């Protein structure tokens, strides 16, 4: 990659000393296998802890009524950021915000499971299907 089109600041932040800093967070296990965890930009700082947006999204998608979900950070004057989830339910399925919060609370730490939920009909996506979280 040579850089971002007409965005020198983003290029300087991403390309440093000849290396591409992608923002991907991963780890290597004892067998030398690499595991992708999340994108640095998708980490939500809440009350001093980093919360993986994709982990909350995957937990929501495991609920029997949920078809898809997107989780974003919203400014919170007390906790740095609040967690807000946009959820698409499966056709004919029903779930309340309280049920979804309870589902997450049973499977994630208290900090990850807390936050608001919004049931949506669709999520904004790029032409290749990636959710455009910046539009929330």
Summarize this, please?
The chain is an alpha+beta fold and 136 residues long. It has helices at 8-14, 53-61, 97-107, 110-113; strands at residues 15-16, 19-20, 24-28, 34-39, 43-46, 49-52, 66-76, 80-89, 116-120.
Overview of this structure, please?
This protein has helices at residues 8-14, 53-61, 97-107, 110-113; strands at 15-16, 19-20, 24-28, 34-39, 43-46, 49-52, 66-76, 80-89, 116-120. The chain is globular, with a radius of gyration of 17 Å. 19% of the residues are buried. It has two domains: 8-37, no CATH class; 43-135, GMP Synthetase, Chain A, domain 3 (2-Layer Sandwich), CATH 3.30.300.30. With 136 residues, it is an alpha+beta fold.
Identify the quaternary structure here: single chain
Number of strands: 9
- Order of strands across the widest beta sheet? 7-8-9
In helices, the fraction of residues equals: 10-25%
Taking the alpha carbons of the first and last residues, their distance comes to: 29 Å
Question: What structural class do helix, strand and pairing data support?
Answer: alpha+beta
CATH architecture of the largest domain: 2-Layer Sandwich
Low-confidence stretches: none
Q: What is the CATH class name of the largest domain?
A: Alpha Beta
Mean pLDDT: 83
Given the C-alpha coordinates, what overall shape results? Answer: globular
CATH topology of the largest domain: GMP Synthetase, Chain A, domain 3
Strand content: 35-45%
Rg, rounded, reads 17 Å
Query: What about the largest sheet?
Result: 3 strands, mixed
Instruction: Please count the helical segments.
Output: 4
């Amino acid at each position: 990659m040579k850089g971002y089109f007409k965005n020198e600041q983003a290029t300087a932040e991403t390309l440093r000393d000849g290396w591409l800093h992608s923002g991907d967070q991963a780890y290597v296990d004892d067998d030398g296998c690499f595991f992708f965890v999340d994108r640095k930009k998708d980490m939500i700082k809440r009350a001093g802890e980093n919360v993986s947006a994709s982990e909350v999204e995957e937990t929501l998608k495991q609920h029997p009524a949920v078809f898809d979900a997107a989780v974003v950070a919203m400014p919170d004057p007390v906790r740095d950021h609040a967690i807000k989830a946009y959820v698409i339910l499966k056709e004919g399925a029903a779930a309340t915000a309280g049920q979804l919060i309870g589902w997450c609370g049973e499977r994630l730490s208290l900090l990850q499971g807390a936050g608001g939920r919004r049931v949506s009909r669709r999520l904004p996506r790029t032409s290749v299907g990636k959710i455009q979280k910046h539009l929330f």
